[in-house]
Every structure is written in structure tokens, then in C-alpha cells.
């Protein structure tokens, strides 16, 4: 009785202490033992009938003979499969609630060069999209401040050049600070391109279609401006390092320093051979680590990308071919092409409303020639490597964050596989969402017969 | 100097308002079109009409004779769809089947009753100005007649067949109303209904239905008005009813079949204009006996655009094969005429024609498509389109074969009156031509 | 409609441009290698057959004269039949998309609130590449609708994806004509400029519809009066025949189906009441993303529901959309189909169907029914299509894997007992087309060369980009 009271008191005290202390990023110490699962580490062979130990947010053990420490929550998940949580490398989830309603959109800030703006501060942790998106297995997303396509949604603004810092966020957390896994992972740059306006569209909007020479000149000017901005940043860097007495802090240029030092990748959105080549040449000349985004038409640039070790964020395979004469399965076959050309890539949903279908896009790529393991890696370890966080996430390995999904069947890329449990940083994640709640509610609406006449 | 004197003479002749001269072109090569070629023969013209043509034509004394040893005589060319003589807006579309012809801005239309884009009562001849530079420019290329249409709007108005030379507009009219020019151009979002292609089609169906009902109502009322509601005068419907046929645009073969089907709803004989993919629609045209006005301005890649633009196979194929349309239609016995479609320079016309010839069109069929066929299509073949006694003396006289290499147009006759074509100046220079038409950028 | 991610597309027209033509004298059919096994008897053996209505089994299907002549586990192959071995493959009925906008040159007549006189069927483009791409995704029938710019929109057209045939030959013979209605945000704002066109609220939407049917009833009466006068031998000028009102009268007389785009539960009820008041039925509610909230009312009226699997949050009225919508309505007795409303999504309605198993726990057959027999019933064509049964049209899709798997790839598609798509041939055609393109480009360049001395050198330098090798 006494020991029971002491242990009860101890429990009260020990649970109270965290409540008294300033709340750390991880809510509370928790230990979980997932028993009798098949683990798919992704970086090594699948192992059956093992247990996974999670403590302090990390994966601390994978093995057949793990013992649950005292206080651990033991979950018998016989027949289930553990995968790394999936990583979506291009999204605006958290920045937009209803795309047609401009006030709910926070993508695409005004101003041509905004390297200093940080996307994570605008991510809404309470967005209804996060619970929806993570229910199919996404645990981390790279949120793009400039949005994933076009200028300001609903506006006629042309997309800006340097759009801000993209960051990796977990898909669950009380605050954006908690959710941010890696701030300023990449600098989002949209490569200046000539907008394609068909004469018909132009007639409809009452705008003039400029001559090509004119447009090309303008585009080259924009490229020169971008180069000039980088030059300016370098001079700032030199002045700062040299301890110039007249030096004054400039937030925009401060934000360029990690880029120039190679610590923050440049995520350049460029499409078609012409612009991809220009972007690669720029990154080379500026000696910047580049990641290519937003490309569907690579032309002959795959060898160039491989040569320069430039990874690619591929978009949905559920896309129509860009040109009339392209093969009907162009988009689905593209990942296999990149794989065969030795170009490293990861997948991004490039959206919000369909972000939950990321795994099915991967399946489509696998159906068209991409090996299954490569497909899985392209949403787990490869993006982790590309974004420089492979020591933290991307596979089921000891020492990494416990960002895990537990599925009822062995293939998370099939629609009929359900994610039954999810852990982010070792904490179980509620897989309910607005959708499941409405489902429950209306499933239980009492039956009515005839519509009531008003 | 001699030319100027002759020109003055001609001018004087017309000012004196006497009859056109009695003249003969002797010992020339003659292409009557309605019959076999006459290697050496004579054409006799009096009072603006062809009096005789053949190998045994007696030339009366006192007749002005042109020795035709090195000359060839053709019927004057007919431009089957033209805007010659019509004042043009800044860059008008000339009978292009797919170009936007912006209509005059009017109040927003809320339905077919508002008659959007409809100026069907308008006759081209009422807008025609003989002094427009385009008239002389057409004549210089060998055209003696043009079928001129208003082109702005959905039911743009009635075309008129006009001579490209004469004392005043009235005297130049061959036929004031030869067909209603219809387009598939929505009036544009601000102008209201119709704002879509299917809206235009539905509007035309309703318009022609209304015309039928209007005619019936007027007829009933005219027979005995007692007890009946008075039909409301509708000038749009008057214009529809006044036109003997409809012209509908179609470049793609699927549009050709669609317009053939639409014309059945409209209940009037159909003439297709544009016709670029006519080569693919021969059976549909044959089955419905539909004539085609083929635009000589073959589809080309737009200039000044991004050279990286990927043209689809469809687009490339059409560009490659459009010039085969005339030859294919000829082979399929589909009646067709050719029109200049906005080509203003003789050199451009020459290369367009050459492409059609290279694609298999015979010279004979080419000439027919510029003479007797358009006359037949517009119901003028009883008086125009070939060199036959009794027909109007519209002739074009060349050194060398018309549209041949190094050929030259020597004379153009309209109603028996001789015109000297001005030489084409190869380079644009100050005052080199009095053409008011926009020459555009050099290609 | 879904907005694809590539920024380029913000500026390009959203409809497919005019398409593949006969090149070099080859017919469309040949160029797209439609090995149309014309008027041949075909036996497809050893595949897993999902009849949808009569169970699933391994067996044989015999196609003859455009129809399914036999289907079963032990069907004998007629002499002279072309035999296709479908061992390890999976065969389902041709997929029917109940909501599409492909293959027509204009979709919306948005200038007026009632555009019943227009019809998308007046501007069918049989050469639209979207037809081919849909076919490659297993679609055999597309219910092509007018857009949603109007409370009462225009007439729809039902097409079979008979790629290579002309516009008339695409029409589904004898289909009941139909019309599109739209409720909610789209008809309110489609006037574009503020207050350019009534209505601006949902209240106005109801009014527009009620007024239109009132006008239609008056019109009916006018014609009845005129006919009566004629009967009595009185002289009268006939009333003006009005194409718009004619169409509305057809709805009142039950001769034209109404497919109504709607989202919110309140507007769904509003429309059902209107239909009841005027004595006709709504054939299907389209999108109907809040249908799950009023499923019983929909079932009681007898309207079908055609919805997305999992779209949501692109508009305010789609914010309460849930992927369980189809399952809830189905469980409450509504006839439910899944549609695409999108040229890309229609290529994978099979994986969309799989989602009702995930979201709502429906069975395989129920899932397949959503894209086959259910839309067939909604369109009143179930006597001809929608399942693999003797006597129905030979419309089939063969997959290499389970039809509801995200890995399944369409191998062959049959329409009217003829092969219209073959996956292997499709790929050889791509290189043929590319070769033809290169040839035409070279020809065109050669033709232009003599005229372009001293022309823009930049253009010459960039030319090779067009002639790039096959991707």
C-alpha cells in the first residue's frame, strides 16, 4: 500500500515536473514499444517480426529481443508494417486554406528579391489540411514560400524571382516552432522565364502579345538583375568579413550569407531545356548547391544535371503531358527516366489539396518503370539526403527521429493500405481530421424519409 | 511619258462618258476557260461586252487593235472573297476563317433577341469606295472583279460582286447581294451573348428560325391583316431573307463537316470559306455539293515568336498540306474558288499560287478557280468568268503565262475599259506606291 | 477544375488544341495504330473477369458484332476468332465518366443565366487528344457537360471514345438528351464583373430556375393555344419558336435529363424542391460534395449522385467535402458514381474508385460499380453498357494488375468489340509521330531558307531545339 502510494505520488510528481518546467519542444518523455511488426528501414533490408523502441522522440532500438523499459507504452501491432514517415518536398500546405479565397493564401509575397522572408512563421499549425495530409503517411513537408505554381493565386502578378526561405516542417505540432524541423532549408528562386500567353488568351484578356525578341530581352534583363543581386550580396559579405567601419546590417543581404556559404541550397524553379540550362550555368558560376524544382520538360538536360549533382524535386505523376505529341504516360514515365539517367530526385505534391495522394503518385511512377525501392526512397531517405537532414529523418534507423507510420498492409503506396498509427518525433499523432469527424457525424444522422417541405 | 499620255486618254475617255472603245486583241493566245485553249485567235470587244472570240474573227475597220503575238488573254480574275474598296480598320482580318474580327462595341446582349453581332442588312456595295487604294492594288494583280463582304460580327452583312474599275460605285455593281457573311466569332465577354462558339451556333440557328417565322408572319399578315397581330419590322431578319446563300468559315476538316450540318439548320445554300484542310473533307463536300472558297494565304508559323515553340504534328501537317487542297478538291470534283485572303503583294500571291501548283494543281484548274468557278459559285456565270460572246469584257492580258516565271501583266480590261497595271515596286520607298494598306514588317 | 502545378499552364489555354491529323497520307487510325479488328470475332481468354453485376472469375469473353456474345469461366472459343491471351490480366467493363468537359471546343456560355439553347454537342472536336488520353486510361464513355457558369446551363452530349472517328460517330446512339444546371458559387460569380449578371446570391439562383420554368410553362400554353386555334380553323400567326424554351419544356415533359452541379446541402434541397414543384426529377446531382449531409433526401427524390473521390478545399463550398461522401450516400440508398471533371483525373478513375474502399469501407464490387454500372444507370444506358454481360456492348478494359491497384496499367481498351487502344502500340506511335514531326520541320525549314537570307540569325541558332531527339 505504501509503495503504491509512493509510486502514485512519484507519478504525480514526475508528471507534474514537466508541467512546471518551461515546455520543451518535445511535449513529454515517452517510451513506446511497437511489437511484432515488420520494419521497412528503406536504407536496408526489410526485417520481419521485430519490435521498435521509441524513446525521447528517437528510434532507440529495432530488434527481435527488445525489452520494454518501465513505463513504456507497449503496442502489439502484430501483422503491421513500420515505414519511415513520408517526406513531401514541395508544398504550400499550411500557407493556404481555401485556394479560391485570396485572404486564406499566404504564398507569393510581393517584391522581386525576398531572401529574408521565412516561410515557417506563416505556416498555420491549425490548418485543417495538416490532419488530412498526414493521414496517408506524410510526416514532413518542405513548404515553399513562393507557392508551387504561378504567381499570387487569383492574381495576375507575375511570379517573383527570389521568393523566400523554404523550410522543412513536421505535419504535426502545437506551434510552428515545434513543427519546424529545419528552418531555411532552401532559398526558393523562380528562374525568370518568358510567360507563355497564347494569342487567344491575350485577346480574351485584352493584352498585347509581345514580340519574342522583346520578351527575350526582358527575360535576360531579369536574369541580369538576379546576378547583380547576388553580386551585391557578395560585396556585403566581403564588407562584413573585412569589418568595414561603415558596414550596416541589411536583413535581405544577411539572409544571403548562408546561401553564399553553401549552407542553404538554392531551390530553383525552372522548366524546359532553355531555362534549366541557364539556371544550372548560374548555379555553377555562383558556386551554389542547387536543387531543381518545377521541371517537367527536361529536354537534353539530364546528363547535365547528373554531371553537376543537381537533384530534382519531381512533381505529381498524375499530370497530363506538357505537349500534344508527348506520350500519354509522359509524366508517369518521367521518374524512371531520371533514375536511368542517374539523376537523384525526390517527390513533391506541389500542392495542398492533393498532397495526401503523394504515395499514389509514387505508385504510378513504379507502375511505369521506377523500381519500387527507388520510389519509396524518393519520399524518405533521398529527400532527407537532399535537404541535409539524413541524420535526423528518412529511414527507420536508430538515432533518428521516430517519424514513423504503421500500416495495416505491406505497401503504403496502395490505396487500400491504411495508416493505422503515426509517430512524429516519437509522439503518437492523432489521425483524425475534419473529414473523419464529419464522417462520424453524418454516418449517425437519424434516418429521414421525405424531404420536409418548407 | 507614253504611259501617262495613254492614262490621260483613258481618263479623258471615261470623263467624256462615251461608250467604251470598240477594240480587238488580235493573234493572241486565248484561254477562254469555258472551252479549249485557242493558240492563236482574236477577241473582239464592243460596248463593254465580248462580241466575238475565235480563230476566224473579222476585225472591223476603225477598231483599236492590240497585236497579241506575244500575249495571252485570260478572263479577268475574280477574287472570291475580298475587302477591296472597303475602308479597313487598323489591321483588319481579310476573310480569314479563324481570325478575330472585332465587331463594333454595342450594348450588352442578353439573348438572341438583342441581335448581337448582327448587321445582316448591310450591303458591301454601300460601304464600297472605288478610290480606296486596295481597288487599284487588286487590279494590278490581274483581278477585274471582287466579291466584297463586310466581315465584322456574327452575321456581318451581304456581299456584293463589284467590278474593280469604273466611273462610280453604282456603275461597278455586278450583283448587290450575293451572300450573307457569317462568322463563328463570339462577340466577346463584355458584349454579352454569345460568348462561346456553341453560343454563336445556337444564335445563328435561332436567328434563321426567327427569319422563317418572320417571313411566314409577314405573308399571313399581307394576305389579310384582320385580326392578326402586326409583325414587328426586323431589319436583321430582312437582311437574312435578302441573302441567297450563306458563307460559313471552316479551316479544319471537322469544321467543314460541322458547317455543312449547320447550314441544314439555317436552310440556305452554303459556301465554305477558308478551307485550309479541305484536302481532308472531300467526301463530305462531295456528298453535300458544297463549294469552297480556298484562302491562298496558306497557314504559316507566326513570325516573331519564340523559336523554341513546339508546333504539334497536327499544326505542322496542316501547314505542309494546306496547299494540296486545291489539287485535291479538283481531283474530287468539288467546286472551289481561290481568294487572296489578305495577300497584298503580287510576289506573295505568286509564291502562294506556286505552292498550290507544286502540290499538284493544274494550271487549267488554277485559272478556273480564279475565273469561272467563283462566277458559278455566286451565280454570275451567265455573264462573267470566261471569254465567250455576250459576256462582260473583263480580261487580263499577260506576257507569258499568268503566274508563270517572269510573266508580266500587260493590260487589264474591265467592262471593256483598259487599265494599265502599275509595276510592283520591289522595295518600300517614299511615295513608291499609293497603297494605303498597311505593309507590315518585312518578313 | 484542378489547376496543374506547372506555372506555364496558368497562361496556356485550358482546352486541348486541335489535334492529330492525317500525316503523309496515313489515316488517323493507322497513325495511332488503332489495330481496329474490324467486324472480327475476338476471344479474350484466361483473364480475371470483373463483371461487376455477376461476380468475378477467371474465364473467357467472346466479342462478336460489337457485342459481348459470351462470358464465363468455361466459354468455348468460336472457330476463326482472334484469340487474345489475358493470362494474369484483369478485365473490367469500360469505364464511364459521368462528368467531363473534353472534346468540345467551348464549354461555357456564361453571358446569360439561362443558356438552355446552346449545346456542347454543337462543337464536338473528335480530334481532341484528350479523347485518346482518356481512352488510354480506360474510359470508354464520357458524359460531356456544359460548364457551370449558369444556373440553367446548356445541353450536354454523351460520347463514346471511338478515337479516330468523326464527330457524329462519337455520339452514343439513342442517348437520352440532357442539360446541365449549376448551383452555388460558380453561377453566382460567372458574370465576372461584379453585378454584371443576375444572380449574385443563392437566393437568386433559385429564382432564376423557377422563373425559367414558369416562362417555359407559359410558352407551352402559348403553343397549346395556337394549336387549338388552328384546330378551330382560326387564322393565327404561330408563336415564335424559341430554342431555349423548347429545351426547358423537354425537361418538364421528362424527355431531357437534368445533371445539376451543386455543393452545399441547402442548395441541394432547394433544387429537389423545385423539381418536385414543377413535376420532374433531377437525374443526377453532380459534385454534390455535401450530399452526405442530406443523403436520405436525395435518395427519397430518386436523384443519382456523381461525385469526386477526394477533392476538397479549393472553394469555400468545398470546404466541408469529405472523401467518405460517396460511401455515406451509397449506404443511405443513393445511386452513386465517381467522376473526374478533369482531363487528367479521368485517366485513373479506377484508382479513384479504390478510394471508396479506403474511405468508407465499401467492397471491391461496390467500388467498381461506381465507375461502371452506376453511371450507366444514371445515364439510362445500362441496357447497353456498365457490366460484362451477354448482349451488352463490347466495351472492356484490360489491366496488367488488379484494376483497383495504384500499379495497374491499362493494356488494351475495346469499344463496340473493337480494339481502340493497345499499350505497346501506343509507344511505337510516339516515335513515329516524332519522326514525322522532324521530317516536316526539315521540309519547312528547307522551303523557307531561300527567302531568309540575312534573316534573324538567332532564329537559326535556336532551330535545333525544335528538332530534339525523342524524349
Task: Give an overview in words.
The complex is a heterotrimer of chains A (454), B (443) and C (471). Chain A has 454 residues and is of the alpha/beta class. Chain A contains 13 helices and 16 strands. In chain A, helix 5 (212-242) crosses helix 6 (251-260) and helix 9 crosses helix 10 (358-367). By secondary structure, chain B is of the alpha/beta class. In chain B, strands 1, 2, 3, 4, 5, 14, 15 and 16 form an eight-stranded mixed beta sheet that branches. Chain B has an eight-stranded mixed beta sheet with strand order 6-7-8-9-10-11-12-13. Chain B has two domains: 1-75 and 385-422, Urease, subunit C, domain 1, CATH 2.30.40.10; 77-384, TIM Barrel (Alpha-Beta Barrel). The two termini of chain B are 35 Å apart. Chain C is of the alpha/beta class and 471 residues long. Chain C has two domains: 32-94 and 387-471, Urease, subunit C, domain 1 (Roll), CATH 2.30.40; 95-385, Alpha-Beta Barrel (TIM Barrel). Chain C has 14 helices and 17 strands. In chain C, strands 1, 2, 3, 4, 5, 15, 16 and 17 form an eight-stranded mixed beta sheet that branches. In chain C, helix 2 links the parallel strand 6 and strand 7 (139-144). In chain C, helix 5 packs across helix 6 (243-252) and helix 5 (202-231) runs parallel beside helix 7 (265-278). At the A-C interface, helix 10 and helix 13 of A face helix 2, helix 7, helix 8, helix 10 and helix 13 of C.
Assign the CATH topology of the largest domain in chain A: TIM Barrel
Instruction: Assign a percent range to the helix content of chain C.
Output: 25-40%
Mean pLDDT of chain A: 90
Identify the biggest protein-protein contact and residues per side. Answer: A-C, 80 and 80 residues
Poorly predicted segments of chain C: 1-37, 453-471
Describe the main β-sheet of chain C briefly: 8 strands, mixed
The CATH architecture name of the largest domain in chain A reads Alpha-Beta Barrel
SS element count, helices of chain C: 14
Total separate domains of chain A: 2
CATH architecture of the largest domain in chain C: Alpha-Beta Barrel
- The amount of helix of chain A comes to 25-40%
CATH class of the largest domain in chain C: Alpha Beta
**Total strand segments of chain A:** 16
Amino acid at each position: 500500500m505504501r509503495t503504491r502510494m509512493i509510486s502514485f505520488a512519484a507519478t504525480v510528481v514526475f508528471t507534474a515536473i514537466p508541467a512546471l518546467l518551461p515546455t520543451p519542444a518535445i511535449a513529454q518523455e515517452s517510451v513506446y514499444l511497437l511489437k511484432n511488426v515488420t520494419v521497412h528501414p528503406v536504407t536496408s533490408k526489410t526485417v520481419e517480426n521485430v519490435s521498435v523502441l521509441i524513446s525521447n522522440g528517437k528510434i532507440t532500438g529495432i530488434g527481435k529481443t527488445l525489452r520494454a523499459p518501465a513505463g513504456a507504452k507497449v503496442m502489439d501491432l502484430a501483422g503491421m508494417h513500420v515505414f519511415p514517415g513520408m517526406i513531401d518536398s514541395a508544398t504550400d500546405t499550411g500557407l493556404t486554406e481555401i485556394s479560391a479565397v485570396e485572404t486564406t493564401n499566404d504564398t507569393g509575397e510581393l517584391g522581386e528579391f525576398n531572401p529574408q522572408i521565412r516561410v515557417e512563421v506563416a505556416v498555420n499549425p491549425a490548418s485543417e489540411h495538416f490532419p488530412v495530409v498526414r493521414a496517408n503517411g506524410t510526416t514532413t513537408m518542405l513548404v515553399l514560400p513562393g507557392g508551387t505554381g504561378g504567381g499570387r493565386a487569383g492574381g495576375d502578378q507575375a511570379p517573383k524571382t527570389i521568393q523566400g526561405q523554404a523550410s522543412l516542417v513536421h505535419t504535426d505540432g502545437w506551434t510552428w516552432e515545434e513543427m519546424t524541423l529545419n528552418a531555411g532549408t532552401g532559398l526558393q528562386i523562380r528562374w525568370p522565364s518568358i510567360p507563355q500567353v497564347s494569342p487567344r488568351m491575350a485577346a480574351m484578356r485584352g493584352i498585347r502579345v509581345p514580340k519574342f525578341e522583346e520578351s527575350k530581352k526582358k527575360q535576360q534583363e531579369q536574369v541580369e538583375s538576379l546576378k547583380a543581386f547576388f553580386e551585391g550580396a557578395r560585396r556585403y559579405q566581403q564588407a562584413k568579413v573585412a569589418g568595414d567601419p561603415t558596414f550596416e546590417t541589411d536583413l535581405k543581404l544577411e539572409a544571403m550569407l548562408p546561401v553564399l556559404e553553401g549552407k542553404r541550397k538554392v531551390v530553383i524553379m525552372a522548366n524546359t531545356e532553355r531555362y534549366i540550362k541557364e539556371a544550372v550555368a548560374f548555379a555553377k558560376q555562383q558556386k551554389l548547391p542547387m536543387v531543381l524544382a518545377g521541371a517537367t520538360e527536361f529536354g537534353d538536360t539530364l546528363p547535365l544535371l547528373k554531371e553537376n549533382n543537381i537533384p530534382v524535386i519531381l512533381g505529381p505523376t498524375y499530370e497530363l503531358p506538357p505537349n500534344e505529341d508527348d506520350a500519354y504516360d509522359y509524366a508517369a514515365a518521367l521518374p524512371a527516366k531520371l533514375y536511368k539517367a542517374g539523376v537523384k530526385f525526390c517527390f513533391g505534391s506541389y500542392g495542398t489539396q492533393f498532397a495526401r495522394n503523394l504515395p499514389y503518385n509514387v505508385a504510378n511512377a513504379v507502375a511505369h518503370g521506377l523500381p519500387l525501392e527507388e520510389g519509396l526512397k524518393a519520399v524518405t531517405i533521398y529527400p532527407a539526403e537532399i535537404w541535409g537532414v539524413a541524420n535526423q529523418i528518412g529511414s527507420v534507423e536508430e538515432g533518428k527521429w521516430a517519424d514513423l507510420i504503421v500500416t495495416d498492409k505491406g505497401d503504403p503506396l496502395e490505396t487500400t493500405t491504411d495508416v493505422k498509427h503515426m509517430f512524429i518525433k516519437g509522439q503518437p499523432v492523432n489521425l483524425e481530421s475534419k473529414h473523419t469527424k464529419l464522417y462520424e457525424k453524418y454516418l449517425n444522422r437519424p434516418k429521414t424519409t421525405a424531404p420536409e417541405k418548407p | 511619258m507614253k504611259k501617262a499620255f495613254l492614262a490621260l486618254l483613258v481618263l479623258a475617255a471615261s470623263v467624256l462618258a462615251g461608250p467604251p472603245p470598240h477594240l480587238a486583241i488580235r493573234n493572241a493566245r486565248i484561254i477562254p476557260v469555258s472551252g479549249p485553249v485557242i493558240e492563236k485567235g482574236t477577241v473582239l470587244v464592243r460596248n463593254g461586252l465580248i462580241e466575238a472570240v475565235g480563230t476566224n474573227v473579222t476585225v472591223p475597220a476603225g477598231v483599236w487593235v492590240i497585236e497579241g503575238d506575244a500575249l495571252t488573254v485570260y478572263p479577268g480574275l475574280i477574287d472570291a472573297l475580298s475587302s477591296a474598296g472597303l475602308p479597313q480598320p487598323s489591321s483588319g482580318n481579310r476573310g480569314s476563317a479563324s481570325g478575330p474580327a472585332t465587331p463594333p462595341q454595342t450594348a450588352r446582349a442578353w439573348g438572341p433577341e438583342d441581335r448581337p453581332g448582327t448587321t445582316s442588312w448591310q450591303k458591301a456595295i454601300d460601304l464600297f469606295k472605288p478610290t480606296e487604294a486596295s481597288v487599284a492594288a487588286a487590279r494590278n494583280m490581274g483581278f477585274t472583279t471582287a466579291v466584297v463582304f463586310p466581315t465584322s460580327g456574327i452575321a456581318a452583312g451581304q456581299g456584293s460582286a463589284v467590278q474593280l474599275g469604273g466611273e462610280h460605285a453604282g456603275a461597278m455593281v455586278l450583283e448587290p447581294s450575293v451572300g450573307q457573311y457569317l462568322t463563328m466569332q463570339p462577340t466577346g465577354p463584355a458584349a454579352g451573348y454569345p460568348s462561346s462558339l456553341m453560343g454563336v451556333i445556337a444564335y445563328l440557328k435561332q436567328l434563321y428560325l426567327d427569319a422563317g417565322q418572320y417571313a411566314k408572319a409577314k405573308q399571313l399578315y399581307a394576305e389579310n391583316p384582320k385580326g392578326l397581330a402586326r409583325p414587328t419590322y426586323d431589319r436583321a431578319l430582312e437582311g437574312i431573307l435578302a441573302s441567297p446563300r450563306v458563307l460559313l468559315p471552316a479551316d479544319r476538316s471537322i469544321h467543314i463537316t460541322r458547317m455543312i450540318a449547320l447550314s441544314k439548320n439555317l436552310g440556305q445554300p452554303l459556301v465554305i470559306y477558308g478551307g485550309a484542310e479541305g484536302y481532308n473533307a472531300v467526301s463530305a463536300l462531295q456528298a453535300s455539293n458544297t463549294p469552297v472558297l480556298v484562302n491562298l494565304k496558306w497557314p504559316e508559323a507566326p513570325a516573331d515568336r519564340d523559336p523554341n515553340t513546339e508546333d504539334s504534328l497536327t499544326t505542322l501537317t496542316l501547314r505542309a498540306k494546306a496547299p494540296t487542297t486545291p489539287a485535291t478538291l479538283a481531283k474530287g470534283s468539288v467546286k472551289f474558288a481561290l481568294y487572296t485572303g489578305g495577300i497584298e503583294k503580287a510576289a506573295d500571291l505568286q509564291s502562294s499560287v506556286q505552292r498550290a501548283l507544286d502540290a499538284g494543281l493544274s494550271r487549267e484548274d488554277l485559272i478556273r478557280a480564279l475565273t469561272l468557278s467563283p462566277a458559278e459559285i455566286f451565280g454570275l456565270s451567265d455573264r462573267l468568268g470566261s471569254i465567250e460572246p455576250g459576256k462582260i469584257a473583263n480580261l487580263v492580258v499577260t506576257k507569258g503565262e499568268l503566274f508563270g516565271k517572269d510573266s508580266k501583266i500587260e493590260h487589264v480590261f474591265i467592262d471593256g475599259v483598259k487599265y494599265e497595271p502599275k509595276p510592283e515596286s520591289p522595295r518600300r520607298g517614299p511615295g513608291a506606291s499609293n497603297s494605303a494598306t498597311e505593309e507590315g514588317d518585312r518578313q | 477544375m484542378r489547376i496543374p502545378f506547372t506555372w506555364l499552364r496558368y497562361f496556356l489555354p485550358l482546352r486541348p488544341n486541335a489535334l492529330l491529323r492525317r500525316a503523309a497520307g496515313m489515316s488517323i487510325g493507322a497513325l495511332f495504330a488503332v489495330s481496329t479488328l474490324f467486324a472480327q470475332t475476338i476471344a479474350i481468354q484466361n483473364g480475371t473477369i470483373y463483371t461487376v453485376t455477376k461476380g468475378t472469375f477467371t474465364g473467357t469473353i467472346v466479342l462478336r458484332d460489337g457485342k459481348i456474345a459470351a462470358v464465363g469461366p468455361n466459354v468455348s472459343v468460336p472457330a476463326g476468332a482472334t484469340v487474345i491471351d489475358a493470362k494474369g490480366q484483369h478485365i473490367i467493363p469500360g469505364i464511364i465518366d459521368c462528368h467531363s468537359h473534353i472534346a468540345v471546343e467551348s464549354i461555357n456560355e456564361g453571358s446569360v443565366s439561362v443558356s438552355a439553347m446552346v449545346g456542347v454537342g454543337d462543337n464536338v472536336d473528335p480530334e481532341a487528344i484528350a479523347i485518346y488520353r482518356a481512352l488510354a486510361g480506360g474510359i470508354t464513355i464520357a458524359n460531356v457537360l456544359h460548364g457551370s457558369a449558369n444556373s440553367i446551363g446548356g445541353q450536354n452530349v454523351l460520347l463514346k471514345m471511338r478515337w479516330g472517328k468523326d464527330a457524329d460517330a462519337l455520339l452514343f446512339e439513342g442517348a437520352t438528351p440532357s442539360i446541365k444546371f449549376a448551383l452555388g458559387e460558380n453561377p453566382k460569380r460567372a458574370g465576372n464583373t461584379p453585378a454584371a449578371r443576375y444572380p449574385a446570391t443563392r437566393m437568386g439562383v433559385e429564382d432564376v430556375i423557377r422563373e425559367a420554368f414558369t416562362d417555359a410553362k407559359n410558352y407551352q400554353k402559348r403553343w397549346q393555344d395556337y394549336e387549338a386555334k388552328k384546330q378551330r380553323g382560326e387564322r393565327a400567326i404561330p408563336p415564335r419558336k424559341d430554342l431555349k424554351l423548347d429545351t426547358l419544356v423537354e425537361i418538364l415533359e421528362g424527355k431531357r435529363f437534368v445533371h445539376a452541379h451543386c455543393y452545399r446541402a441547402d442548395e441541394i434541397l432547394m433544387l429537389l424542391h423545385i423539381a418536385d414543384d414543377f413535376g420532374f426529377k433531377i437525374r443526377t446531382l453532380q459534385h454534390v460534395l455535401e450530399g452526405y449531409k442530406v443523403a436520405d433526401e436525395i435518395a427519397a427524390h430518386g436523384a443519382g449522385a456523381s461525385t469526386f473521390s477526394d477533392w476538397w478545399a479549393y472553394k469555400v463550398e468545398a470546404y466541408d467535402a469529405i472523401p467518405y461522401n460517396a460511401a455515406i450516400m451509397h449506404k443511405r440508398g443513393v445511386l452513386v458514381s465517381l467522376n473526374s471533371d478533369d482531363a487528367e483525373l479521368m485517366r485513373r478513375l479506377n484508382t479513384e474508385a479504390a478510394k471508396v474502399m479506403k474511405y468508407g469501407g465499401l467492397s471491391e464490387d461496390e467500388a467498381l460499380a461506381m465507375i461502371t454500372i452506376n453511371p450507366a444507370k444514371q445515364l439510362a444506358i445500362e441496357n447497353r453498357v456498365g457490366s460484362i454481360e451477354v448482349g451488352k456492348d463490347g466495351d472492356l478494359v484490360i489491366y496488367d494488375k488488379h484494376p483497383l491497384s495504384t500499379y495497374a496499367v491499362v493494356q488494351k481498351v475495346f469499344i463496340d468489340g473493337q480494339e481502340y487502344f493497345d499499350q505497346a502500340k501506343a509507344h511505337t506511335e510516339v516515335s513515329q509521330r516524332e519522326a514525322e514531326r522532324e521530317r516536316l520541320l526539315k521540309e519547312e525549314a528547307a522551303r523557307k531558307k531561300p527567302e531568309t537570307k540575312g534573316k534573324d540569325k538567332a532564329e537559326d541558332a535556336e532551330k535545333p531545339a525544335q528538332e530534339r531527339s525523342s524524349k
